[in-house]
Amino acid sequence: MPEPSDENNSNLYMRLQQSQLVRANIQNISQYLNTGLSPETLDICVKLLEAGVHPQSLAESVILIRNQMAALDSNGDNAH
To answer: Nearest 5°: CA angle at 76, between 57 and 61?
Structure first.
C-alpha cells in the first residue's frame, strides 16, 4: 500500500483549515444576524444545503419548527 505523500497531506490540511474557517465565518454571520441557531443546528443546516435542500424550504422549515416549539413551550407554561 503506497504511503500518503506530503502533497496529499498538505492538501488535506488546507481543506480542513478552509472548512474550519468557513464554518467559523458562517457561525459569525449567524450570530450577527441573531438567528439563535446553535453551532450544531447551523452545521446540520449547512450539510442539508450541501446535499441540495432548497434554501427557502429549509428556512421555512426552521421557522415552522421554532414556532411549533414555542407553542409547545407556552402550553407547558400554562399547565403549571
So the answer is: 0
Grid cell locating 54? 432548497
- The number of CA neighbours under 13 Å toward the Cβ of 64 is 6
Element (H or E) spanning 18, and its range? Answer: helix 6-32
Instruction: Divide the 80 residues of the chain into consecutive groups of 10 and give the mean pLDDT of each group.
Output: 67 83 93 93 92 96 94 76
Interatomic CA distance for residues 28 and 33, integer angstroms:
9
Helix (H, G, I), strand (E, B) or coil at 36: coil
- Grid coordinates of 19: 472548512
